[in-house]
Amino acid sequence: MAKPNYAFAKRQRDLAKKQKKEEKRQRKALNKQRAPADAPPPPATDVEPKES
Questions:
Q1: What does the alpha-carbon distance between residue 26 and residue 48 come to, in Å, rounded to a whole number?
Q2: Exposure of 11 by Cβ count < 10 A (0-12 exposed, 13-18 middle, 19+ buried)?
Q3: How many angstroms separate the CA atoms of 22 and 27, rounded?
Q4: How far apart are CA 7 and CA 13, in angstroms?
Q5: What's the pLDDT at 11?
Q6: pLDDT value at position 8?
Q7: What pLDDT was estimated at residue 38?
């Protein structure tokens, strides 16, 4: 019976984890670019300038 190659299995897990992390980073970067355009403008202050 062949013995398991633990080093290969670990390498595959690490590569999958790294790829998933990179995809998540790209999604976050894309959302960050999109957010300012889609976000409503900041609320205006209710303070009006006093006229003297």
A1: 43
A2: exposed
A3: 9
A4: 10
A5: 98
A6: 97
A7: 56
Q: What global pTM score does this model have? A: 0.56
What does the alpha-carbon distance between residue 34 and residue 28 come to, in Å, rounded to a whole number?
Answer: 10
CB < 8 Å & 24+ apart, contacts of 25-31: none
Residue bearing tokens 């999958």: 16
Reported as a single tens digit per residue, the pLDDT across 9-49 is 999 999 999 999 999 999 999 999 887 655 666 676 776 66
Q: CA 51, CA 31: separation in Å to the nearest integer?
A: 43
